[in-house]
Amino acid sequence: MDFSEFLIRRKFFDSPGKSPTRRCISSRPEPQMRSRGKTPKKKGNSTQQDPVEVYCRIRPAGNPEDETCIKVLSENTVQLLPTDGATVRNGQVKEFQYKFQHVFDEYTSQKAIYDYVALPMVEDLLHGKNGLLFTYGITSSGKTYTMTGTPQDQGILPRCLDVIFNSINELQVKKYVFRPDKMNGFEVQSEADAMIERQRREILPGLTTPKTPTPATPKPPKFGEQARLRDMCKVDDIEEDNNYCVFVSYIEIYNNYVFDLLEELHYDPITGYRPPQSKILRTDNTENMYVHNCVEVEIKSPEEAFEVMYKGQKRRKVAHTALNAESSRSHSVFNIRLVQAPLDPRGEEVLQDPERVCISQLSLVDLAGSERSKRTDNMGDRLKEAGNINQSLMVLRTCMETLRENQKNNTNKMVPYRDSKVTHLFKNYFDGDGKVRMIVCVNPRSQEYEETIHVMKFAEMTQEVMVARATQVRFDIGLTPGRRKLHQQYKDAAAANEVAALPVVPSLVYSLGPSFPPMELLHSSDDKALRILEDFLNDRCNRRHTLNTDFNKKEEEFRARLVEMEREYYRLTSKNEQLMKDVEKKEKDMSKNENKVRALERKHEEFTKYIQTLERENSIMSLKLEDKNWKINLEKTERERMKHDFKTRLEMNNYAWEKNMVSTCSEQLC
Ligand SMILES: Nc1ncnc2c1ncn2[C@@H]1O[C@H](COP(=O)(O)OP(=O)(O)OP(=O)(O)O)[C@@H](O)[C@H]1O
Questions:
Q1: What is the reported pTM?
Q2: Which tens digit of pLDDT belongs to each residue from 597-610?
Q3: Is 482 annotated as ligand-binding?
Q4: What DSSP element (H or E) covers 413?
Q5: CA gyration radius, the chain
Q6: What distance in Å separates the CA atoms of residue 518 and residue 508, rounded to the nearest whole number?
Q7: Is 139's C-beta closer than 6 angstroms to any atom of ligand 1?
Q8: Is residue 144 marked as binding?
């Protein structure tokens, strides 16, 4: 490519809002007669299928002088070819071509990748559909760069957060209206209850949960605090009569254990921070997999989200390796869950109907890179990590291959999702519905040629796996459309006193009437003045009596209500106590069961290891047996050969002896 072509490409991809074919604003979806509560994603819901979409991104070579092994042939084809010194087999140069949904060359900007690959998934999320986007490739191929980027050149994750908040900004519900129910679902509570919870958690001192004490080391600048270039894009066809709320969670899968990156770590003044406990995967009541007891943070702005993301990133396991100064040693999963529910008929508050709550999820996964130990020279922990990374990526491959085989041949082979935590967690995306997209990151260095071939083969094969298309969610539930706007107009008009016909509630004015009339008593027979005074005082007495009666009536009513409320309060308190006891008991049971599950998992692991050892021993014994059989056969053949040899010799001896005898006899006869 010459310099002018390079400039044209840069201009095209770097200009904000421009991408190869996508616009920032999404188109309105076809409405359907369906509403949805939680995330029931079963294949039966949807009949149409789409393939897993795979995109290829080539990172710039670390050193412009380096030889490269990849060439972009068209916007969806790349060629992989070895350079001098690379493997040539049977005298033939191994070069391959691979086709993808789109190929992004080394000049493509982060914005272009986001617009092309991730923006449609954000649109889906806002329309109530699920999505899984993951980056895949060898170590140091640019997966983390593509997913996270830098504050000045943000990757997919921060851009997704920016666009989500740009889109739902004024339609967000107040904090704690939606609450995670700890079983992968959400509860909805009234704004009054949410306000009480806000006060309890944020305002009343001492009631907030104790935070992990921060270490004395100075904090590095947060992702959100640096000069961040915000993505200004917005999805503008979202349902305005819904209220929205965003929850995020951040986990990592390290050595096939799931850890919560947002969990508060307990601090012991003597021993320091307690190491985090691994989490278990569970199935919710709609058969969806989730990480049990994982912290889900409700966020109201991208800045809050970045703080959470940054907190998680600090805890991610990264290490210096021969191929990457900051190599991810774990698979990380950033989950964005959008909870939305329609407004009530007055357009004022969220409808208190859990059946109308719609939860959609976008999982952004940065997989750890595959690496060959002989190239990285890893030792100790790094080697063990690399082994686990390669093992889990292998399971991912096997799952994709089995899925493709099942779909192609209409067979029902078991897909080994459970063999690795990554595949187990994302089982629903492949068995259920939603969009699945993968970005294959490629390092163009010629030394990576051999490993890149495996990555490309897997990526090309993955495109043949089909995933059920998510059905459109219908949010129109028969209430007046545009009620949010109508309510706002009403409120504005009431504030400006422009609504003449606003209903006025008549109320008794508590006043004893006008003040004393002006009069002068000149002498004791001034009857006129005395009559006026008498009338005035009678009027006051009457008024006082009416007000007293009204006050007493109201007081009685108030007392009755107060008594009723107190009774209700005591009833609720005792019910609450009972519920708390139940919850405590259930929590105890749950933790007991969790311990049991952990113990069983440990046992399972031990058994697996034992079986592996037995299998190894078995294979060694088989080899020994084969060896012995071979030796026995050899001895048998040797024995046969000797037998045959002896027989021949005997025959020859007999023959010689006979001949000898005949000649001796004939000599004697003569
Ligand atoms: N498109 C790109 N433009 C500029 N720099 C890039 C690009 N892609 C990757 N890099 C740089 O390459 C280096 C390695 O990238 P990164 O850490 O993202 O690799 P990775 O695939 O996540 O590796 P690992 O699997 O070991 O974690 C980083 O310094 C990153 O800044």
A1: 0.68
A2: 999 999 999 999 99
A3: no
A4: none
A5: 39
A6: 27
A7: yes
A8: yes
